[in-house]
Amino acid sequence: MKIIYRAENIIDANLVKGVLESEGIHAFVSGAYLTGAVGELPVSGLVSVMVSDSDVERAATIAGSIDASLRRADGDDADPLASALPA
Q1: Can you tell me the distance from the alpha carbon of 81 to that of 55, in angstroms, rounded to the nearest whole number?
Q2: Confidence class of residue 87 from pLDDT cuts 50, 70 and 90?
Q3: How many CB atoms lie under 10 A from the CB of residue 38?
Q4: Sheet of strand 47-51, all strands in order from the earlier edge strand to the far edge
Q5: What is the three-state SS of 9-22?
């Protein structure tokens, strides 16, 4: 499995996971339980979405589109693919 998306929070990670699974791509959210340890761990980079090696390219494209939409909704157009890792 490879990381295709680093989420800012658990909600965004599960949103990406849900869309990927609706497209037939099995996805796993890693680090979901680490968010409860904020204060002891770095605040960012805790939660990521992972897919099998064979789905990386397709999943990264989908995750990048979702990330761009989330950034537009937040008014942050700086780098729409900053959280989507390249295939």
Answers
A1: 18
A2: very low
A3: 10
A4: 2-7, 47-51, 27-30
A5: CHHHHHHHHHHHHH
Question: Tokens for 38?
Answer: 């904020």
Model's pTM, two decimal places? 0.72
The CATH number assigned to the domain holding 18 equals: 3.30.70.1530
Instruction: Tell me the residue range of the domain where 12 lies.
Output: 2-74
Q: Count how many domains the chain has.
A: 1
Q: Per DSSP, what are the bridge partners of residue 47?
A: 7
* DSSP character at residue 54: G
80, part of any domain: no
Do the domain assignments include residue 10? yes
Tens-place pLDDT, residues 70-85:
888 777 555 444 445 4
